[in-house]
Amino acid sequence: MTTRRTRVAVIGAGAVGTVVAAAAVDAGHDVVVCARRPIDRLVVERADSVREIDVPVLVDPSEATEVDWVLLATKAQDAAGAAAWFGPLIGPNTTVVVLQNGVDHAERIGPLVPRGTRVLPALVYVAAESLGSGHVLHRMGARITVPGAPGTTFDAARATFDEPSTARAGRVCATATDPADRFAALLDGSWLHVERVADFSTAAWRKLLTNVGANPVTSLTMKRMSVIQHEPAVRELTRALLDEAIAVGRAAGARLSDADIEHTLEIYDGFAGDDGTSMLYDRLAGRATEHELITGAVVRLGDQHGVPVPLNRAILALMHGVNHK
After folding, report:
1. Which residues are annotated as catalytic?
2. Structural domain of 305
3. Is residue 1 included in any domain, yes or no?
4. What is the 8-class DSSP label of residue 159?
5. Does residue 153 lie within any of the structural domains?
6. pTM value?
7. pLDDT tens digit sequence for 216-267
8. Is residue 31 within 8 Å of residue 10, measured between CB atoms?
9. If residue 258 lies in a helix (H) or strand (E), which one and from where to where?
10. What are phi and psi of 195, to 5 degrees?
11. Is residue 2, in this structure, part of any structural domain at all?
12. Rounded-to-integer distance, Cα 306 and Cα 210, Å
């Protein structure tokens, strides 16, 4: 008697989607990638290897069938456009994992999926760049953070792109019933580690900090991380953007402190000078940026909680200008 392999659909064939699809293949699952346009080959390149991912790529939702897991890896602003895939892919036992930026994953995706669908928010610590259609350079990072039960070891995990240690990467029972535990088990056996944290709200804000400084600054200057690492005026602006975001996060209930500023800057300094950000890559490729889910989130929640954010508001206005058609 053979055991049916777990069926996984990855929506989005960009940098994160391709890297996660490769991990799901490595974990031994039946994987299909759902994309907007045909792709001849899916290739993941790392410093020490180049490999082709042999999975079907669908472009027509009518060709999709029900799966066990839907991994939503589009840019946050493209989620509504991806909703056409949800009907064919999602059944009563399907879990949707939202692998996107922002601090409102479930609230953003919940209205788009069938009523009763399990939605699991996830924070992706994978730095990757699309070099062309289906060709992704995985620069660093091998971690996904999801909500965990109270008492989870990492109550509010620090933001980090460091490789997970073997001490942390314990195996998870494949028969677990909690969606976070089941997702960790799904990728067990791959190089991608799923970390569960009890205080997911704080973890989400810490992830937002990694984006709220570097993404708009590199996108607006059209420079890579070296501009934050080595240009004093730009570094001070970045620090000030983080300071405003922390004030908003605290008002929203996240357990943030001034130490999170220094830790975020340390993360920036850990990148190679020629590394970029997702918003810089989008600008270089002529794509729309996801500023509304990053800087826009800080401005909207700042207004909601009465926290002034003049610098983030100015950056958001500039990003609107950059994206103006």
Report:
1. 207
2. 201-323
3. no
4. P
5. yes
6. 0.89
7. 999 999 999 999 999 999 999 999 999 999 999 999 999 999 999 999 999 9
8. yes
9. none
10. -110, 130
11. no
12. 23
